[in-house]
Amino acid sequence: MVNGPILLVILVVSILFIIIATAKFKIHPFIALLLASYGVGFSAGLNPLKISEIICNGFGGILSGIGIVIILGTIIGVFLEKSGAAVTMADTVLKIVGPRRPGIAMSIIGYIVSIPVFCDSGFVILSSLRRSLVKRSGASSVMMSVALATGLYAAHTLFPPTPGPIAAAGNLGLRDNLGLVIMVGMVLAACAAFVGFIWARLVGSRLKSSEDVEKISLAEEVVPEHYAHLPGPFKSFLPIIVPIVLIALASVANYPGHPFGEGVQLPIMTFIGAPVNALFIGFFCALPLMPEFSKKTMTGWVDQGLKSAAIIILITGAGGAFGTVLKATPIGAYLGDTLAQWKLGVFLPFILAAALKTAQGSSTVSLVTTSVLVAPLLATLGLDIPLWGVCLL
């Protein structure tokens, strides 16, 4: 087994390999993570006959608790996208906030829609709404675009049921406490979205786009033509609100002292609030969004959700394999002892994630890879204290 500074070289080379392979040579992250796993295993001196076993255990271990959650969350997102429910949610928020505050409305809309829908899809879905609002309010198109994008990314990267945060929670040992992850993540995401809105205001006052110069046709519709009939607000919000509330309530119910009591309600809330069960209930709440019960909708929409989830699951599993290989080597312990002298704290995962995201573009890959690298270093970085301990700092 290799020891000493060479372990840091192995780690840095593996990270650079993942970045270069995905960003420059366009190798799929799944293959890049598997190759990095084998590379670290051989370089660190693991038993060659055990490396494949370690990789398989890591792949299956991370997916055992979150695989179905990712699938169901993705399917719900497809239902909301295909049915036009995402547009209904956006229009509902716009009516509440008011057309006089288009920037903050766009940020809130992005925040809500990105909970079930991938942020890139959300941006496309809401583009017609954004353009129409620019016309009606006279607001800067750049400001509106940045506000929408930051709202979308804040929710997409900071709390479940989006795949990236679920995968990161699994890598950090929080798969059984997703309720707490959701509650804390929602607050942090709201803060991040607000900061993004402030930045959008600053950028929008300085930059102009063609949309600010060219007049948009008054006949342009907010609702895309392919949506024959949009569902109502209640049916639109239900599939995302129900799972989040159930998971959060189950988490609170199981706090020390059991705030809701220890009677029959405790096992019931624990059961329906389990992430898999809560998302499955959310799926049934999404079924009324179908314009018709047919093979095209029921089977077709589910198929699309499965295809979208497959990529995320494969990347998540490969990330779990990479993390398991790292744990099987002395890299984590040596890196922890080294970093203890630098006192980087929370800046280390931030720098790693920012570098990965900037280089290869995928938020999910960045979340998975960074959480894998940081998990064994939490104690060393001073990030393993309870949440209430953080609040007292």
Whole-number tally of structural domains: 2
Shape: globular
Helical segment count: 20
Rounded Rg:
22 Å
Distance between the termini: 39 Å
The amount of helix comes to over 70%
Strand proportion: under 5%
List the uncertain runs: 215-223, 389-393
Helix/strand class: mainly alpha
Mean pLDDT comes to 83
Q: Report the count of strand segments.
A: 0
Give me a quick take on this structure.
By secondary structure, the chain is mainly α. It is built from 20 helices and no strands.
List the helices and strands and how they pair.
Elements: H1 6-23, H2 29-43, H3 48-83, H4 85-97, H5 102-113, H6 119-125, H7 127-137, H8 141-158, H9 163-171, H10 178-204, H11 210-213, H12 233-253, H13 265-272, H14 275-286, H15 295-327, H16 331-339, H17 347-360, H18 363-374, H19 378-381, H20 387-392
Helix pairs in contact: 1-2, 2-3, 2-15, 3-9, 3-14, 3-15, 4-5, 4-12, 5-8, 5-10, 6-8, 8-10, 9-15, 9-18, 10-12, 12-13, 12-14, 15-18, 17-18
Structural key phrases:
393 residues; mainly alpha; 2 domains; 74% helix; disordered C terminus
